[in-house]
Amino acid sequence: MPLYNVTLKKDSPPAELEKAKEKVREQGGTIKHEYTLIKGFTVEYPADHVSTLESSDHIHVEQDGEMRIHNQPRQAKDMYIYTISLVTGWLLLKMALTNALARTASCSVRLRFRLIHNVQKARQFSVSPPPQVATSTQQPFAYGANDEVTRLAASRRRPLTLADLLKHGRPPLAKDALLASANFTLSLLPARLASRIEALRNLPFIIVSNPHVSKIYNNYLHSLSTLLPYQQRQITTLEEEKHFAEVLADLVHTHTDTIPILARGFLECRRYIDPTEVTRFLDTHLRARIGTRLIAEQHLALHFASQPISDDGNPPKDTSPSNYIGVIDTALQPARIVKFCEDFVGEICELKYGVRPRLTVDGQPDATFAHVPVHVEYILTELLKNAFRAVVEAGNEREPVEVTIAAAPDVPRNHVRGPYSVSVGTDPIHPNSDVGFEMDSVVGTADANESIKLSSPSTQSITIRIRDRGGGIPPEILPNIWSYSFTTFSDLDLQSSENGNMDALNAMSSSSGHLSSIAGLGYGLPLSRAYAEYFGGSIAVQSLWGWGTDVYLTLQGVGKVG
Q1: What CATH number is attached to the domain comprising 192?
Q2: How far apart are CA 69 and CA 531, in angstroms?
Q3: What are the tens digits of pLDDT across the range 109-168?
Q4: How confident is the model over 335-368, as pLDDT tens digits?
């Protein structure tokens, strides 16, 4: 049975190909394969049939050969037809790729010149805003610019401390301190973004091909491309700092939904990747995201708290004293956040179940330390959500959830070092310094007139115990609670969440301003642990199956800042 390859000629309308298909069917032919890269198809005619199909002004017809296997079994015939068609398809694909590579090669000189021009333009660093880049659905890095990603990802990255975020002083900042904060932020972010891009590239191709994972990859490329024009020189004027703050705001906004998008992507790809690999990648990636976002938001908070600022270097008069230095509350009281989270979780629990468990706070409710409130709020919301849900579903809503707060003012492993100074090239480098913090106990400042000192000689930690009578965690589930791919919800629950009908109680992971809902995706506990451990803290779970659960949350701060 003869085979013919029918292809559409260049600049011919697609309608001509449809006409050719109709003619083939009228003549008794069977279309075996259709190609998308090259507009065309393969047609097979019966052995005793005479075809009048021929090339025209719009289509090209080429006979692939006549198969004389009439005496062979049907399976052999079909296999032979499939093999011939597969080879034909591969040859057509090869031709298309060869033409595409030829076109790319012809443009290489022009692209190289454009890349060199962009680098030179970035080095000029005018006070105008950075150039507009492609949207997050496109790849702003093309061709040789990927070498810059590789170089940055391989560069040495200094470890970050909580003291780094406090060292520029209490806002409002003077001009020099604000510029120092901007340059310090700029020195950290590009390498950290490039490291995440490399990590995404190292995932299996089928994972990165997922539209959700691909979107995150392109978001990181977009963010890095907006920072590169600022990397060549120091930020020396308030106008430049203002433009840089706008770039940071775009970066923070672009990555707002990173966690739920990644979660959905890996959920869809769960049959193609081992759950252990998912947990390993996400644990590293989300911890790095915590640091990257915190660095950007810290400078943005300092920027807005210092406005308006004059060119003579004087900050605005501070009329309302605040405990905040950027996004860090230097006198954070965990008991207040517990109360806020209790109200929030309780209202939604009452809406869902019709009952509201009681909560008691004891221990040292007046304890304070320096930490990031939004992180503490997320962790406590997740832990209280689990406790409230457990006691209600166990029928023990009359038994109160007990929260005990204990402050530990002295931690032996943390002790005073000398006054803090920035030395990017000499500080020890940790292999994963972009996924965690080092603790430092003395905080310096860029403003010599106002130094920030700790009132105790060591870093303070606070432990919060949450105890419920919800029946505990089943032994078969307990080993999986720290896995990002594990969830107690069914696929039906996840599908309903995509349609906007997410269970109200499960939506409580989005209580804080920028932490989007990831309910039902199995991310609550492992992500809470990532937030706690990023600052040297921890979360431990003790389950008494048939009775209840104790969760111990340890939060590490920098003591009391004066």
Answers
A1: 1.20.140.20
A2: 68
A3: 343 334 334 434 433 333 334 333 333 334 444 444 567 898 999 988 776 777 788 888
A4: 999 999 999 999 989 998 999 999 999 999 999 9
Q: With the C-alpha atoms ordered 187, 192, 197, 199, is the resulting torsion angle positive or negative?
A: positive
**Residue 341 counted as domain residue:** yes
User: In three state form, how does the secondary structure of 78-109 look?
Assistant: HHHHHHHHHHHHHHHHHHHHHHHHHHHHHCHH
pLDDT number for residue 518: 41
Is residue 71 one of the residues assigned to a domain? no
Range of the domain at 408: 328-412+455-486+522-556
pLDDT at position 410 over 50: yes
Cα–Cα distance list, 481 to 67, 238, 521 (Å): 60, 48, 12
Cis peptide bond prior to 172, omega within 30° of 0: yes
CA 235 – CA 130 distance, rounded (Å): 13
Determine the Cα–Cα distance for residues 97 and 148; give it in Å rounded to an integer.
27
Alpha-carbon distance 212 to 263, whole Å?
A: 9
Q: Which of 470, 511, 514, 466 is nearest to 335 (CA)?
A: 466
Q: What's the structural domain count of the chain? A: 3
User: Among 540, 542, 506, which Cα is nearest to 523's?
Assistant: 506
Q: Which residues pair with 2 in a beta bridge?
A: 66
Dihedral, 516, 521, 525, 527 alpha carbons, nearest 10 = -50
237: left (phi over 0), alpha (psi -120 to 50) or beta: beta
The answer to whether residue 286 is domain-embedded is yes
How far apart, in Å, are the Cα atoms of 123 and each of 120, 140, 146, 243, 324?
Answer: 5, 18, 18, 16, 36
**258-268 and 211-227 helices, crossing angle to 10°:** 140
Map tokens 């970066």 to a residue: 251
Helices marked H in 394-523: 491-498
